[in-house]
Amino acid sequence: MGNRDATPIDVEVSTLDIELHDLPHLAFVKIDVEGHEIAVLTGGEALIGRTRPILGVEYGRPTYSLYGLTADSLYDWAGRAGYRISDLVGHVVTDRKEWLYVCDRSYWDYLLIPNEKVEYWRHLFLSK
Predict the structure, then answer these.
(1) pTM of the entire structure?
(2) CA 81 to CA 43: how far, in whole Å?
(3) Pick from 89, 17, 83: nearest CA to 52
(4) Are 74 and 38 in contact (CB under 8 A)?
């Protein structure tokens, strides 16, 4: 993967918790980091736990598998953090079996919804 003629560069790496530690409110975070989604989420657990934003993640096997992750990795992180996985049209995944069925089937974009916002989230789509 990648261009063999590319020149490597050094990049400073930080976490959401370090960079945004004093942010008082956060409504939404979009994460698209080519397989490093769990690392970003883990590096933002304090911020995410405090502000409870909706999280948009691109999560697909071709990239997450490069780092030893599985479909279960996102499901497990979401459960530990008090989040549920939803598709982009409001369907909230009910359990691990359903998640393993839908993950990587036809799309890779998901939303993680805080447990306390799931009913409101569903209502937004049902009221249309």
Answers:
(1) 0.89
(2) 12
(3) 83
(4) yes
The answer to whether 75 and 104 have CB atoms below 8 angstroms apart is no
- The alpha carbon dihedral of 50, 55, 61, 63 has a sign of negative
Looking at CATH, the fold of the domain delimited by 24-126 is given as D-Maltodextrin-Binding Protein; domain 2 (3.40.190)
Q: Where are the domains of the chain?
A: 24-126
Per-residue pLDDT tens digits for 72-123 = 999 999 999 999 999 999 999 999 999 999 998 878 899 999 999 999 999 9
Separation between Cα atoms, residue 32 and residue 67, nearest integer Å: 15
Structure tokens of 28?
């939404």
Question: Following DSSP, what letter does each residue of 71-127 receive, concatenated?
Answer: HHHHHHHHHHHTEEEE-TTSPBP-SHHHHHHHTTTS--EEEEEEGGGHHHHHHHHHT
The residue whose two tokens read 């996102």 is 74
**CA 60/CA 105 separation, integer angstroms:** 9
